[in-house]
Amino acid sequence: MFVGRGSSVLTRENGPQPADFADVRATNLAVVLRHLRTHAPCSRADIAATTGLNKATVSSLVTDLIDRRLVREVGMTENRIGRPAVMLVLDGSPYAAVGLEINTDYLTAVALDLAGERLLSWRRAFTGTAGQPGQAIAALAALARRTVSKLSHDGRRVLGLTVAVPGLVDADGVVELAAGLGWQRVDVRKSLLAALGEPGYPLLVENDANLAVLAEQRLGDQSGTGDLVYLTGGASIGAGIISDFRLLRGARGFAGEFGHLPLDPAGPACGCGRRGCLEAYAGLGAVIRRALPEVGIETALSPSEFGPHMDEIHRLAKSGDAHVLAALTETGARLGQGLAILANLINPACVVLGGYFTGIAPWLIPAASLELAARSAAADSGGTVIVASALDSSAAAAGGATRVLDAIDSGALPTPR
């Protein structure tokens, strides 16, 4: 929908307010850019016909976008009735969006162009995070500087950077709690801005599951799905939730703690200090102990141990090992119990299993789907299906870059240089 002269905008604090010309133009520039993202190549006349903007306005807006090097002309087309038309596509060659992820044993950087194509994807081991946010932020800053330097060398201007953290992150970029990192009340955004010397691009901090679901919706097999849940399969189980095309963050940004849904108050101890949480039944530690009892029931697993153990579980499952298959079936059923709660509350069209869950998804999904169907109030699980993510382990970092692209699509356009 476009905004014209005399329109008003809604604000949370003050109700309807007049929209000034600058607001209207920024909104309409974003409308044209979004249209090109999904329909390019197309002509100015195509844009006008679809959006309802008049042709003169579209011509002015396109000129502005070309000046900003967000759009370019690609020649004429004659496959149409009437005169040939100049066709338009996204450009964005001078720009890049960056996402970083910090997790319990690695750092990741992903950069995307305006079309969502990867410009770089880096991952490195990092084990100095436990209870040491200063060291972690220094490492993040070093990775950010290296990433921005590479992009600058390639002639690209960074439009924004978003950091993914596995924990509770408020709207100001403060990590209230990241149990796996040993963090409490860490102002990641402020500290990182200081470490980077107040860079000239926006910097945000967000929960990793929230960013992963944005990547799944924009870059994955579920592209365009308006009601979507992404489950992280890492040291904890987080849920990124999109409802009616909007990210569900909650009042303070703490929505999505899927792993701490209480299944049984008398159940096993959870790392959060409570008992019977879903994570205590279906988190990676629980999966490994159930499938590989030789690891030791009381053994505390470090995140660096997850990979080799999950690889072994995957190998044994493929070979038909009865014990491992039974363990994965039980894990899938526990996931299904939690997913039924979500399905009854928000009725997603699709739940995507990400992280380490992706590799064992073929053995989790059947049992999870049965439990979901049995516990859903609506017939046929309300239409909710469970699938494995097609994105790799950098989904949260890619989602960080996607968050920047979303801001561009919403009107936060770069100024011409």
UniProtKB/TrEMBL annotation:
InterPro entries: ATPase_NBD (IPR043129), HTH_MarR-typ (IPR000835), ROK (IPR000600), WH-like_DNA-bd_sf (IPR036388), WH_DNA-bd_sf (IPR036390). Residues 32-72 form the HTH marR-type domain. Pfam families: MarR_2, ROK. Belongs to the ROK (NagC/XylR) family. PANTHER family: BIFUNCTIONAL UDP-N-ACETYLGLUCOSAMINE 2-EPIMERASE_N-ACETYLMANNOSAMINE KINASE, ROK (REPRESSOR, ORF, KINASE) FAMILY. This is ROK family transcriptional regulator. It comes from Paractinoplanes hotanensis. The lineage of its organism: Bacteria, Bacillati, Actinomycetota, Actinomycetes, Micromonosporales.
